[in-house]
Amino acid sequence: MTGARLRVVQADITTLAVDAIVNAANSSLLGGGGVDGAIHRAAGPGLLEECQVIRNRQGGCKTGRAVITAGHRLPAKAVIHTVGPVWQGGGSGEDDLLASCYRESLRLAEGQGCRTVAFPAISTGIYGFPPARAAGIAVRACREWQAVHALPQTITLVAFDGPALAILQSAFEKEA
Predict the structure, then answer these.
(1) pLDDT bracket for residue 2 (50, 70, 90)
(2) What is the pTM of this model?
(3) What is the pLDDT of residues 35-63, one digit of tens each?
(4) Could you confirm whether domain 5-174 is CATH 3.40.220.10?
């Protein structure tokens, strides 16, 4: 779509003033380590309370799916929580589940009228997904979405450090 853009940056996702940031959540939605813990800490206790309501209503969030909450104390207006797959060697549908995380998050962002959304590297931390493989899936899923959807207009893939940025940039160029 005209005006649709995909970009790669190195940043602390909790500081980005976008319509929505994506949280690499666990299925309980109650916070954890890595980016999940950082988002919960930065957003404050209201985020946990809202996640508890969702968990009590629907039992959490399944792998490859997503739910949306307010941004609370974050500069982002909303947080989209998605549960990435745990890497099991690549033969258990991990690629498809990871791509689903991006599509489901973008579907929720579009439904909320989000013009800008930022993603961390889903599943590449404690869940063990190979970073280069995950980056390729992220870039492809986002570009495929933008080819047929007007929103979000800008999708940002966020790297937390230099090595992660290099991996994302490589995938960005390879998947052009």
Answers:
(1) very low
(2) 0.96
(3) 999 999 999 999 999 999 999 999 999 99
(4) yes
d(CA 110, CA 149): 8
Q: How far is CA 105 from CA 119, 123, 138, 174, in A?
A: 9, 14, 12, 23
The dihedrals phi and psi of 23, each to the nearest 5 degrees, come to -105, 130
Tokens 């492809």 found at:
140
Question: Active-site residue among 12, 19, 36, 161?
Answer: 36
The sign of the CA dihedral 29, 21, 163, 147 is positive
Residue 176 has pLDDT above 90, yes or no: no
Q: Catalytic residue at 95? A: no
| CA 10 distance to own-chain centroid | 15
Please provide the DSSP assignment of the chain as one string.
Answer: -TT-EEEEEES-GGG--SSEEEEEE-TT-S--SHHHHHHHHHH-HHHHHHHHHHHHHH-S--BT-EEEEE-TTSSSSEEEEEEPPPPSSS-SSHHHHHHHHHHHHHHHHHHTT-SEEEE--TTSSTT---HHHHHHHHHHHHHHHHHH---SSEEEEEESSHHHHHHHHHHHHHT-
